[in-house]
Amino acid sequence: MSNSQLKSVRLVARASEDVQRTIQMAAEYSGATVSQFLIDAAISKATAVIDQSRNIHLSLEEANTVSVSYTHLTLPTNREV
To answer: Does the predicted TM-score (pTM) go above 0.70?
Structure first.
């Protein structure tokens, strides 16, 4: 899909003047516009949160799988040992 086919939306955030100055300075230091800087930072954070959530979800699924396996495990009797 080309850039001309992508629909752009506006994101709005309110912040103090100190926060705005800090973000603007960081954007300038990185050679990006404030919008580019905010989008890059937001997508980086969002990706990290989603990855962490998926890892936790998978860990819980794995724990449940192990738990179910142990629940259905048949232990040998004295005669079988």
So the answer is: no
